Amino acid sequence: MLLYWVCQRSPLKLYKTKLVGATILSVKRRAKLLLFELSSDYVLIIHLKMTGQLVWRSQVGKVRSGGHPIQGVDQVPNKFTYITLKLSSGGKLFFNDVRQFGYWQLIPKRDLLRQLQHYGPEPLARNFSLNEFSRLLGRHANTTIKSALLNQTVVAGLGNIYVDETLFAARVRPIRKVSSLKNKETMAIHQAIIKILKKAVAARGTSFNTYVDAKGRSGSYWRVRYVYGRPGQKCLKCGQVIKRTIIAGRGTHYCASCQK
Ligand SMILES: [Zn+2]
Question: Which end of the chain has fewer CB atoms within 10 angstroms, the N or the C?
């Protein structure tokens, strides 16, 4: 039943005919989607959502994991494992998901571009220019900047933590309307997105292989964040208390002194 829930975006029969027995030709990422190109001319799409995790274990027990670690659980399979793929190398790939928001989907390769076309630019790609960012933001003039940055059509792959950290770095309050932003503020946000994501990727990279290491589990970016998850604590820049509110339905953290 749960297995079906994870896979329900495609008929189960399709997994048996297009995934089982197929070769994985490449693994890529677009926005928050992982894309496994298969020899069956299908693409397996995996979205980890808030608590999904992929763990690969080789035949000799070597383990690599990516996605959201599960606190206190360092074995696979475990009670949060919903899918296990047996690989021809003798290894296994496990999909774990504590809250079961993640999903798998199989689509024909020829439909991939259409499926991805509504996503905005990748923030670390060359086409994420200030001009393009301003143009896409302009479509959301009447929303808050927090909401606009979470919108995957403006910029792809930015999640709640990184939006809060970006706006802190750019010194802009999350509640501000997009239409109220001055050019130099838009520029600061654009630069902050790139800076924060580069930092986050580097920090995740250092903890990527530490599945069995309790210290590494939360990813080292957690230790360098300024506002996210720090309500009531002192701002690391000015000493004022970090505030928390709800914007666009999401917990939002900011410093009322540093951010205008
Ligand atoms: Zn501050």
Answer: N
